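Narrative progress, year one. The postdoctoral researcher (J.K.) led the effort to move from monomer predictions toward full complexes, under supervision of the PI. The following entry was the first complex the group processed end to end, covering 597 residues in total.
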Amino acid sequence: MSRFDDLGFRAGTGLFGVLIIAVVIGIAGVLYTDSTAAISKFGWQFWQTDTWDPIAGDFGARPFIWGTLYSSVLALIIAGPIALGIAIYISELCPAWLQRPLVFLTELLAAIPSIVYGLWGIFVLVPFVRQLEAGTPEWMKALPLFSGPPLGLGMLSAAVLLAIMIVPFSSSVAREVLRAVPQAQREGAYALGATRWEAIRMALFYARTGIVGSIMLGFGRALGETMAVTMVIGNTPQISTSLYAPQYTMAAVIANEFAEAADELHLHALVEIGLVLFVITLVVNVASRAFIWSLGRQARPRRARHATAPAAEPA
Amino acid sequence: MRTSYRKFMSHLVVALCAGAVLLALVPLAFILFYVIKQGVTAINWNFFTQMPAQIGDPGGGMANGIVGSLIVTGLGALFAIPIGITAGVYASEYRGTRLASAIRFAADTLNGVPSIVIGVFAYGVAVLPFHHFSAAAGGFALGVMMLPLVMRTTEELLLLVPASLREGALALGATRARAVFTVVLPAALPGIITGVLLALARVAGETAPLLFTSLNNAYFSTDPGQPISTLTVQVYTFATSPYPEWHQQAWAGALVLVTMVFTTSVLARVATARMERMQRGS
């Protein structure tokens, strides 16, 4: 009797689990079927041309993919070192009493809604960036990185805002990764006469794949971030290396045009952008998780939580 | 010489790391400062009870948006909590199985999908077939976002329940289902509720998946079949408008959102601390 009960329980609960898998497959399926018109009409050309003209029915998405990649890479360059520094400070350096408050504050940074970042971006960050841009010395303006009028709205604001938003993600994963490094690694280094930094370097080397994974996870977040970027990047489809230039991202064009997309082709073009965004973030996330997991079974962060001393344990 | 260089390097790195922490806390302080400063001047009781004012008129509120956010988030919770908790039960009860790993992988994948893409998916499933935007479609989008959060919390907290509890129930002749639902799950319930609360707070602050599912509504609506106004979409509309009165209202909305996030974070922290003490005490 109880064997049948068990089977029913297993099948019943398993079914709900299968639902989650179905949702993920469903996302891919829906995005594909709702973008067939654009895929069959434009093919690869969709990603190689720059015209975006909903009225003429001419769609090329290269500026959006450029804007998404450029803004996310810039954010990564700013946020990566900072996130790593925070992770090292919290897990290796800071006094025990400071650990909990710091973890709480970084988590609060992660919990603030994207729309609030965007609002702050429009009214505080963008005017500040505009002033900064207006004060650029002439010789700097000659560089392609700083050319163009000081609008404030543009790549620089977007990258800075993105960086602020992804720091807490990367740093909290990197912190977990560092905690998974066996204490013996550090003790060994100290026993050999290492300084603090040298011991940390040992730990970093031991956890290198996980560290790379944690930074990549932040990159994945940046790629898909929508509201805050939409509000500060200037929403102009153009490919420019200038930090001052207003540009556009994949997520932003979907947010701006989707509700108003009247004809099927326009809608399908937007869904195709969504499909590619889905695939890119999927690849980045799976790769970063593979990096984190490759740290090895015995050193996986989740397990290590119970192995470390309670004092070093920020809930 | 060499030693002093090494010592210097060490101090330098410690200083740089501490600097990184400060650097990250500066924006947090700035954001909180502005949201509170601007929000407090704009917020009052009317903000919660009145409809948005006409363009150019000061005052008014976001009563429709606040109620709408509650409805849409509630619909999402109705969808995500039963599925998430049950799937979490499976993943922890049968954690060695291939299906459990697949579910875990799917949940982590879903967690990484950009919210705007979830919105497009919800549009394809819950708007397109019915030919109109609706609160239910927005709820579905938020529910999909909540799913992995609820599932992973449930799984992790069930794994924390001491094996002796389950063994005791099984020894008394309970079936596995009975042991889980009457002994193990209740033991983990406070933690699960905390996790669900955090998930609710997170999706309630979402804007992107609602832009083209629940859309917006200038009027007061509680009908799940109709477009509905939400606090976040309202803040977005007002923030990107050219009217200073609306900007003030947007700050007030941001203050409400940040207060919600802050309160749930503190509650979660208190609850986790209590659970830890209990575990250590036992």
